[in-house]
Amino acid sequence: MVAEMAGEIKEKVQVGEKSLMATKPQTSIKSGVWEEALLEELLYLIAHIAHSEQHLLEIEAEIGEPTLAALIDGLRILRKNIGQILLDYAGLRSEGGGGEFRGGAENLWCTIKHLSMALVHCDENIEKIIRRIDDQKAINSLKVLYDARRILRETLMNLVLYIPKTVDLTQVNEVRCREDLCIEDENLVEQPSKESKEKD
Questions:
Q1: C-alpha dihedral over 118, 51, 18, 162, to 10 degrees?
Q2: Nearest partner of 165 among 116, 112, 105, judged by Cα
Q3: Contact, 154 vs 83, CB < 8 A?
Q4: pLDDT of the residue at 116
Q5: What pLDDT is stored for residue 165 in this prediction?
Q6: 64-67: long-range contacts, CB 8 A cutoff, minimum separation 24
Q7: How would you label 72-110 residue by residue, b for 16+ Cβ within 10 Å and e otherwise?
Q8: Which residues in the chain show pLDDT less than 70?
Q9: Cβ atoms of residues 46 and 90 within 8 Å
Q10: DSSP letter string over 94-130?
């Protein structure tokens, strides 16, 4: 019985990642196929960049010296830039300029980032268990993880596609999330003033 169930699960796995990603969020609001596909790919891009930062930090922790700090910081800024694209296409950015915090738009950023990373971790756990699927415990664990993956993905897609259209996020002002996303200050290069030039 266990062997048969294991075989069935392996067959489902062989269908590939596309079949796993085919489940759409349970909502009556429809979005364009192109828009949804783009946002989902951006979520994965952000998650994998964040995981790359994490792995480099693990290496640095082992070395005990900030030898990879420049690479880590570069990836962090890249992830933030990709995050801006995600928020733009999701319609989460409110109009405004400069380095000012734009309101509730960015308050979902930390949640989106962590959920996308959790989705990748869920996939990695599924892959690990599949390699040793030889008992009922493994099969039960896979069922839980598949369900977790579905919920994580549906939550993410709802956050970027539907929640912004139905929930007023402008009443929330989460400073911690703001710092994680804002990139304007990091991209500004201080220019010498006219007075300092004259003195030189």
A1: 50
A2: 105
A3: no
A4: 95
A5: 75
A6: none
A7: beebbebbbebbbebbeebebbeeeeeeebbbbbbbbbe
A8: 1-31, 93-107, 169-200
A9: no
A10: PS--TT---SGGGGGHHHHHHHHHHHHHHHHHHHHHH
